[in-house]
Amino acid sequence: MTNVYSFDGIVVFGLLFICTCAYLKKVPRLNTWLLSEKKGVWGVFYKAAVIGARLHIPVALSCFFMAFYVMFLK
Which own/partner pairs from 57-66 qualify as long-range (CB within 8 Å, at least 24 positions apart)? Predict the structure, then answer.
């Protein structure tokens, strides 16, 4: 179990948030509803989706390494 208040918990949460927002950007109805705002609190979802779409290879590798770390090394 990963604690959210530790550094690795924050990294896991951030990676899952970025991956989820990037996936939601591919769904047309959710894209217009959730990711239409680019500023403010709702803009965080849009910015995470852009990070996930543009940096999909480093994000995927980070998810793989964090999964390996959490499952086998921690």
Answer: 59/15, 59/18, 59/19, 59/22, 62/11, 62/15, 63/15, 63/19, 66/8, 66/11, 66/12, 66/15
